[in-house]
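Discussion board: Methods & Data

I've been asked by a reviewer to show the raw model output for two of the constructs in my manuscript, not just the figures. I'm not sure how much to include, so I'm pasting the format here to get opinions. Each protein appears as its amino acid sequence followed by a line of discrete structure tokens. Is this the kind of thing reviewers expect to see in a supplement, or should I convert it first? Here is construct A:
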Amino acid sequence: MKDARMLPVIKIEIEGMRHAICTMLHEHAMTMDETFQAAVNDFLKPENMEIFIKETVAHTMRGVIGETIREYFTYGEGKKAIRDAVKQAFAPPIAEEGDSRG
């Protein structure tokens, strides 16, 4: 019976610990929210946005230009030019006039 009387005390202590942990986590979350908000505000400064925009445009342009070049040599006139050059390189030599090898 002695153990049964101790259960309410243990329950109160566990509830107190739970409350303390929840409070600590909430305070930590508030601090993290402030940290995140500060980081976002810092990023959104005009000078940072200008750098970000220029980097994004440059990255996008490199990608689009690279894709266009790949398509040109994979599907377009570049592919035809490469194919023609390879055919010419492997074509048998044309016999010159007077050449009896022909």
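Construct B, same format:
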Amino acid sequence: MLLVFDPLKAKHVVVDGYIPSLGTTAAEKATSENIAMQSLLLLIQVISQPIMFQEGRLRSPYNIWQHFPRIYFKDSSISFVNEIYAFHSLSSSFSPSRSMSKFLD
């Protein structure tokens, strides 16, 4: 996603949370708001609809960006054990009589 924000010059708004200070000009504020709105539209297009229902209330690309790791990134021992279980359960539920493509569907 950062590859998309870099050409838009939106990384400082979305990832870093840039907010124009009181001393900035009206043109700089308008540019910052424009970048924020373009980034928000981009996120709306990319995020799936069930996730958007959860994230839509945040209304800021920076808030949405900060919310993703808190909700979807799990770095704990329980998560690790759960991933190993999910991986091993695949082999026990696969039947050679069915094709791999049917199994993956």
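Answer (T.O., handling editor elsewhere):
This is acceptable in a supplement if you add a one-line summary per construct. For B, something like: The chain has a mean pLDDT of 81.
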